[in-house]
UniProtKB/TrEMBL annotation:
<feature type="domain" description="RsbT co-antagonist protein RsbRD N-terminal">
    <location>
        <begin position="39"/>
        <end position="180"/>
    </location>
</feature>
<dbReference type="InterPro" id="IPR025736">
    <property type="entry name" value="PucR_C-HTH_dom"/>
</dbReference>
<protein>
    <submittedName>
        <fullName>Helix-turn-helix domain-containing protein</fullName>
    </submittedName>
</protein>
<dbReference type="Pfam" id="PF17853">
    <property type="entry name" value="GGDEF_2"/>
</dbReference>
<feature type="domain" description="PucR C-terminal helix-turn-helix">
    <location>
        <begin position="363"/>
        <end position="418"/>
    </location>
</feature>
<dbReference type="InterPro" id="IPR051448">
    <property type="entry name" value="CdaR-like_regulators"/>
</dbReference>
<dbReference type="Pfam" id="PF13556">
    <property type="entry name" value="HTH_30"/>
</dbReference>
<comment type="similarity">
    <text>Belongs to the CdaR family.</text>
</comment>
<feature type="domain" description="CdaR GGDEF-like">
    <location>
        <begin position="200"/>
        <end position="311"/>
    </location>
</feature>
<dbReference type="InterPro" id="IPR042070">
    <property type="entry name" value="PucR_C-HTH_sf"/>
</dbReference>
<dbReference type="InterPro" id="IPR041522">
    <property type="entry name" value="CdaR_GGDEF"/>
</dbReference>
<dbReference type="InterPro" id="IPR025751">
    <property type="entry name" value="RsbRD_N_dom"/>
</dbReference>
<dbReference type="Pfam" id="PF14361">
    <property type="entry name" value="RsbRD_N"/>
</dbReference>
């Protein structure tokens, strides 16, 4: 028989506390009588809701063991047999966090699992409360106590496991990075490797076309980590080129990383996408790009090409580079290894044009474009947005300074102009 409102309000607070404790004790006893069924339902619910849990047997094993332990401890906490502060994560829960970290399963999935557990257990307890308490005040107090204790238990465990997860993830990433770096070093050095295990460790296949890229920056302030910084840049680069697949990336330090983008059966790039990306590329990360190369040898060659392009840009004192392809640099990558000799050769080849001044830079730019357009005055004028007569005047002025036709020793002039364009003051005389 239900008590009247007046009778309910007249219950002594001490008696009400005893009644709350009694009803919660009966609820937890009933729940523990169904332990196996409850654990099975919890695990099934988690696997259904969280995709990353569904296909990994070691994770399923830890879920079952962890759910059994957690459910028993939660019931003990509700009965006040144990204080929340005395509770720590179980061994299965710690192992689950470690497994998730090592498989790159996001921490949000772990947090989601504990929220689902909390909601499920509270719902079962409240259902039990609804048939075991006829006193509204007792029911309300018991409901609040159940919700608060289960929530506090889950918050404490989740926070402790977050630390476990982050430590395990950091340790695993360091081990994985060291192992992957050693394998990449072996491949680039031309050492004999066992192909299948190497591909498994790297998560990357060699029997395809590769695009090697080098990324670097002088600005790493405000970035979460060097790896994350370069991973984001490599992903953006890959996405803008319309390429499916994940790059193989190795951060060399906080300022530089190298990566290989899988091209599959494609032996080239979409140049429309490439040009659009280069025109809009912003941010502190500079990227040099090798040529598409196939197979294990191609993996090595495309990296070497990107690295040679990097050496050119870093030898230059110019700034503002975004994305530069090795193909653009041509012979420049071969001529800048000895800057002292290169500087002397540029001075000899360009003569008076080898001084680092704005006026001579304008003449060099005109002659460079003149060669690139096949020595067409009209095409050069169109490219530089000039009048054709202005181009004729500049070429004549260049020839006067050189003392010969620009068509004489054209190849040397072209190479010297490219060196001056890419390396600037590094190979030019001070004006």
């Amino acid at each position: 028989m239900y008590l009247s409102t007046a009778d309910q309000e007249s219950i002594n607070p001490v008696d009400r506390d005893l009644q709350v404790a009694n009803v919660i004790s009966r609820i937890t006893a009933a729940e523990l009588d169904q332990l196996d069924e409850r654990v099975g339902a919890i695990v099934e619910h988690l696997v259904t809701e969280i995709e990353s849990f569904a296909t990994d047997q070691p994770i399923l094993d830890q879920l079952n063991a962890g759910a059994t332990h957690n459910f028993s401890i939660t019931m003990a906490i509700l009965r006040h047999d144990i204080e929340i502060e005395q509770v720590g994560p179980s061994e299965p829960a710690i192992e689950l966090a470690r497994l998730m970290a090592e498989q790159d399963i996001p921490i949000t999935d772990l947090e989601h699992a504990y929220r689902l557990y909390q909601e499920t257990v509270v719902r079962w307890c409240l259902q039990g409360l609804s048939v075991r308490s006829r006193n509204a005040a007792v029911t309300a107090q018991a409901a609040l106590e159940i919700s608060a204790l289960v929530s506090a238990h889950m918050n404490l465990i989740a926070q402790q496991l977050l630390t476990t997860y982050e430590s395990a993830r950091d340790a695993w990433r360091l081990r994985r990075t060291a192992t992957r770096s050693a394998r990449i070093k072996d491949v680039l050095a031309g050492r004999a490797i066992d192909l299948a295990p190497t591909e498994e460790i790297l998560g990357y296949h060699f029997d395809q076309y590769h695009l090697g890229i080098i990324m670097w920056t002088d600005d790493t302030e405000g970035t979460p980590s060097a790896i994350a910084h370069f991973e984001a840049a490599a992903s953006t680069f890959t996405d803008r080129l319309g390429i499916n697949g994940h790059p193989l990336l190795e951060a060399r330090d906080a300022h530089m990383a190298r990566a290989w983008i899988p091209l599959g059966r494609r032996n080239g790039l979409d140049h429309t996408r490439l040009d659009a990306m280069r025109g809009s590329w912003t941010g502190p990360v500079v990227v040099t790009v090798g040529n598409a190369r196939h197979g294990l040898d191609g993996f090595v060659r495309t990296h070497a090409e990107a690295d040679s392009a990097r050496a050119v840009l870093q030898a230059s004192e110019a700034s503002g580079f975004g994305v530069v392809c090795a193909k653009e640099l041509g012979a420049v990558t071969l001529l800048c290894s000895d800057l002292s000799s290169t500087r002397a050769w540029v001075a000899e080849t360009l003569g008076p044009l080898a001084s680092d001044s704005a006026a001579l830079a304008q003449l060099r730019s005109t002659l460079r474009e003149f060669f690139r357009t096949g020595c067409s005055y009209a095409a050069t004028a169109e490219s530089l947005h000039m009048h054709k007569n202005s181009v004729v005047y500049r070429i004549r002025k260049i020839e006067e300074q050189l003392g010969r036709s620009v068509r004489e020793h054209r190849l040397d002039l072209e190479n010297a102009l490219e060196l001056a364009f890419w390396l600037g003051s590094a190979v030019l005389r001070q004006a």
